[in-house]
Amino acid sequence: MGDVYTWRDALTQVASIAGWDLWDKHESRVIEELVGKIFSDLNFIYSSVHKDLVGIKTRVNNMMNSYLQLGLNDVHFIGIWGMGGMGKTTLAQVIYVRINHKFEGSCFIANIRGKSGDSWLVPLQKQLLSDILIESNIYIRNIQWGINVIKRRLCCKKVLIILDDVDQYEQLEPLVGEQDWFGQGSRIIITTRNQHLLIQHKVSEAEIYEAKKLNNDEALQLFSMKAFKKDSPLEGYVELSQEIISYASGLPLALKVLGSFLFHRSIDAWKCAIRRLKESPEREILYILQISYDGLKEREKKIFLDIACFFNRKCEDYVVNILQTLYDQPIIDIDVLKEKSLITTSRGKKLLMHDLLQELGMQIVRRESPENPSQ
């Protein structure tokens, strides 16, 4: 008759694919773990990854080829950096779905921004361990306790960890403090608006991916999918669509918000909306962008507003000379604005601010002096 093929044999095959060891584990426990893992992954795929992924394939392939394949047996910290609304989270989600099966355990922790102290970070440590180890009753007394457990339990596991929207260096140490906390081949991906935070955590500049805005064709396709539910504008809406594309300047968030707002509206309504945008941008867009502004120190905020109102696209040396008459050593403030993706420098050494960030700055100034904006 031959050997009997048991449940134990089947489970051993399936579990070995997932990188799990069944030695001395009861079958019911393993079934529970496998089912939990499968449902967790399926739920993530269908709830988190969006359908309107215009331009994502090129960006994912860039990440895969240039950042995720280096030193396959080493542990790597990788950054995804860029201004708010640029699609960092979406990129990280797609990468997670694409490669998480290659690891012994994985975890995606979303929306870390603003979370600090034991009351927030201890639950995140528990989530990290629970997702990777498929265990629900993990006891952690405090942050240091959690650090010790993470180091002890994960040091021999090849893991994929994504920390999304990190805004404080102190959030990294309790969760992914050092490379030797994790097994060979592990990948820790951090999305943030603050480049300096990554550098503080010893992420090399070669392993920081700067999120890129959409080109004109990609922007038109994404906007059309929201505004017309198809890949291109309807007849009569082409020029108006191009006005919106120019206004959004390749920012995926703005294209989605504006496209959804203009869906199924008349040409006259579109014209009115475009005129209104020039006076007052959509609140949802400004809210996301203002998060970065709100995180600045007072002097950094002032210099951001100065650049928005007077110095966008001006030579950096010229701007620094002017600002030095108002502030002591403004170079450090300009560096911070660059690190937080609020300004960039062109090849011609000009300071550049995204059009919508400039509009945000002007809106803030108007709110400060509504009766006399020139002030």
Automatic annotation (TrEMBL):
The UniProt record lists the keyword Repeat: yes
InterPro entries: Apaf_helical, Disease_R_plants, NB-ARC, P-loop_NTPase, Toll_tir_struct_dom_sf, WH_DNA-bd_sf, WHD_ROQ1-like
A matching Pfam family: NB-ARC
GO biological process per UniProt: defense response
GO molecular function: ADP binding
Keywords: Leucine-rich repeat, Repeat
Domain of life: Eukaryota
Keyword set includes GTP-binding: no
Domain NB-ARC: 72-231
SUPFAM superfamilies cross-referenced by the UniProt entry: P-loop containing nucleoside triphosphate hydrolases, Winged helix' DNA-binding domain
Residues covered by the Disease resistance protein Roq1-like winged-helix domain: 298-369
Gene3D superfamilies assigned: Helical domain of apoptotic protease-activating factors, P-loop containing nucleotide triphosphate hydrolases, Toll/interleukin-1 receptor homology (TIR) domain
Protein name: Uncharacterized protein
